[in-house]
Amino acid sequence: MNLKFHWMLPKSGEVASGVPQTPQQAARYRIESTRSDSRAAQPEMEGWLYFARRAEEAGIESVLVALNRYEPDPLIISCALGRATKSLKFIAAYRSGLMQPTTFVQQVNTLSGLIQGRIDLNIVAGSSTQEQHGYGDFLAHDERYARAEEFLAICNGFWRANGEVNFAGRHYQVEHGKLNTPFLAPDRNVPEIYVSGHSEPSERLAYSQGTCLLRVVDTTEKLRAAVARATTRGVRVCLRLALICRPTREEALQVALSLLPEDRRESTTAQKDDSQMYREGAAMAMNDHWLNPSLWAGLVPHYGPVWTTLLGSPDEVAAAFLSYREIGVSEFIISGWPEVDEVEIFGREVLPLIREAEAVARN
Amino acid sequence: MLPKGGEVAMKTAQETNRVLTTRSTSPAALPDMEGWVRFARCAEESGIESVLLSFSRYEPDTILIACAVGRATTRLKFIVAYRMGLMQPTTFVQQINTLSALIGGRVALNIVAGSSTEEQHGYGDFLDHDERYARADEFLHICHSLWREDAGVDFAGRYCRVEQAKLHTRFTAPDRDSPEIYVSGHSEQARWLALNRGSSWLRLIDTPEKLAPMVGGFREKGIEVSLRLAIICRSTHEEAVEAAVSMLPDEGVRAEERSILAGSDSQTLKSALAAADNVGWLNQNLWAGLVSSYGSSAITLLGSPAELAQRFLEYKRIGVTQFIISGWPKLDEMLIFGREVLPLIRKAESSAQSTAVRTARF
Questions:
Q1: B69 lies in some domain
Q2: Is residue B361 part of a domain?
Q3: Do the Cβ atoms of B170 and A175 come within 8 Å?
């Protein structure tokens, strides 16, 4: 199986600025997207569509659409963008506790019928208690996972069983649940379910209800055991990372360093008080910013674990992706600065090298 | 009323019967972009202002349909039916606000409490009729706060609770900063909810005499009244009656529809069935004969174009401002309405120099 590459959908407005952006400006836009005056709050189709088409051309399979209170709703965005694209898939992030599972399945199934089944799900537990309270969710971290387990069990009941769904749990109760609108796709009858998180409950949830474990990139040595645990249970592994690819490693490094905040004390992650992933990210960065010569955590203390960055020349980056393939990783979700530039570089310079190596390996 | 999936292509009324469209093999379960977009564009040309999208477990989700059809149209608005208890209010507002920005603000809400306890149980909702309205009140209170406030919203009620709720994505429309809200239902609780949290009360049509006192009560408090009805318009009254009678389906289907209505805990559905059983003809142009076959919204205004136009204007005189209409076949009846009836209404309105009835909504 070839590796699959997905990309983070740019924040609304990032692509539309019309002005050529430096990586620093693009990264800044993302960091400041939580401010109430950010253009990221309002959907902006033109820039998104421009990016979506570049991503399709670059060989990207899906875009991840984030859920938070600062941005528009990911299911609705996936609908609008999916109606205007042909092959790109959408991994919509959603949290349990925001809607009844029956309603969620009805929305996802409807969406699948409107965009030829190009919808997958990233189920997250929520990383900020404050944000969850605004959504009416007052459960603690581990309880949120227990609820997510029930939530997905009901969803899978609708997708995998034919007939009525009955479920009586601690968090959800459904009697004679029945939806006439099915999940519609040319090649499957359930969406992929990416479960993200680094805690033990999140890993258990991925095994019991998910199809793919999504976690932040680390060195192959560190990841090997976790990847093996997942793949032996039939669950794929997808890594989330940032990418900076330039003709030489030195040039990539210059770009990376330019992303460091002028004020080194800056942090956007203080609010993420309830996430194992964020605690680990902070610890990792404190020890040593270089995890190996291609993997840099220098931005993690400032902006969070998903800023863990793979950097280097096309050859180096391609080799790094292939080393994850060796240990059993099958997919990646990438971001870059600016998103359009990095996805074009990736499609032009990196992906052909990977596909070539994969073809050689097959023969 | 937006036709269900597959309905735009159906030629007889009998095919669109609810008993058939709730079967799991019915095309009503599947999104029908081709039919919907065709219908929507005809609606725009016919002078229809909005389409109502009905919510049930037998059909695709209304918010997503509004997004897809809204992106393919330019003027038509979408009245999205949704029930409380299916989503957190913050999430609901986030979806509606996102939708509004993607389709030029052309979204309104039809808040319903749910008419079948069995269906609600399938959605994980186990409250009874009265409690569902109490929850809807809390739910809409939070929604309104999110639409109004810039600061974080705090609310602790019996059914809904949020702390420092805040969304950055705003409701976006050329002329409003929150959606219009139609509250439907005939019960005391539904009327109270419409008065306190809605912009319009939506109910089934009845005779102007019966409706006048209620309509007056709402209008005094600044709430509009919208009527849900079916129409059958033909060249003459006799032809319309003939067409109506020919739409009665076979006995088995009628018995099944009766049992749906009789088993509901909705006062709207009960009163519609009573009208059908007791009276049949409410006046010369208003017939409840199709209710026991097509459901409560099938109380039918029928007659010639001139008769229908006159009837609509009678409702206008007692204060009704909006109509949500359906007909059989869906597309044909709408085209007749736009061609034959609406011009007569507009002509009368302009000669009376009065404000126009908000265009009939299909």
A1: yes
A2: no
A3: no
